[in-house]
Amino acid sequence: QKEVEQNSGPLSVPEGAIASLNCTYSDRGSQSFFWYRQYSGKSPELIMFIYSNGDKEDGRFTAQLNKASQYVSLLIRDSQPSDSATYLCAASMNSGGYQKVTFGIGTKLQVIP
Amino acid sequence: DAGVIQSPRHEVTEMGQEVTLRCKPISGHNSLFWYRQTMMRGLELLIYFNNNVPIDDSGMPEDRFSAKMPNASFSTLKIQPSEPRDSAVYFCASSLFRGQYFGPGTRLTVL
């Protein structure tokens, strides 16, 4: 069982709608959580991180963390075609004195004009 | 500031040949990661260095793979001998605190 689970999609949303990307993790020792955006043929790009329960907002992006449910989500408001990409969720935990990071498989988002 | 630099960007080689991938992390970052990405398996961590010391190489597939970090500004990932199943995109990433910053990747094709 993969430690960080994501639906591979594709998730299709109309332009202007809210895109909701979800991620679950299995290790309760996970402390920090990251969302990366990866355009086709490009490298992953860090867009948000969160480590406290609740919401964290940055522009059109909101990351949500619920440690009790072991659930992380990313909301993208007013979705644009340029948001079409694969979104990778990652969880970090302290392992042997260093931060071990595990990535999910990624969810492909398609924003339809 | 320049981001993570990787070379070559593309590599096509024949089975059995040695392949060396290179990475220059962001100046000041103390952690360096090598990943392999395929459609089937996603992003897999191969090895992680902290302050130039290998910390976790449990993701290195087998003895054909080796990685070095002789100083804070340079790392190599070597595959010898290469096999067709090694075909993938290899990313190097560096980090200081939270989050990793990825290089553009090397697309490796082994024929």
Tell me how many strands of chain B there are: 11
How can the largest sheet of chain A be summarized? Answer: 6 strands, mixed
Largest sheet of chain B: 7 strands, mixed
Oligomeric state, counting identical vs distinct chains? heterodimer
Helix and strand content put the structural class of chain A at mainly beta
Could you tell me the radius of gyration of chain A in angstroms?
Answer: 14 Å
| Most extensive interface, chain pair and sizes | A-B, 22 and 19 residues
Q: How much is the radius of gyration of chain B in Å?
A: 13 Å
Taken from the alpha-carbon principal axes, the silhouette of chain B is globular
Percentage of residues in strands of chain B: over 45%
**Taking all residues together, what is the mean pLDDT of chain A?**
93
Residues in β-strands, percent of chain A: over 45%
Helix content percent band of chain B: under 10%
Task: Give your account of this protein's structure.
The complex is a heterodimer of chains A (about 110) and B (about 110). By secondary structure, chain A is mainly beta. Chain A has strands at about 5, 10-15, 20-25, 30-40, 45-50, 55-60, 60-65, 70-75, 85-95, 100-105, 105-110. Chain A starts with a strand and ends with a strand. The model of chain A has no long low-confidence stretch (mean pLDDT about 95). Chain B has about 110 residues and is mostly beta strands. Chain B has no helices and 11 strands. In chain B, strands 2, 4, 5, 6, 9, 10 and 11 form a 7-stranded mixed β-sheet that branches. In chain B, strands 1-3-8-7 form a 4-stranded antiparallel β-sheet, with no helix packed on it. In chain B, β9 and β10 (about 100) form a beta hairpin. The interface of A and B includes residues 34, 45, 99, 100 and 103 of A.
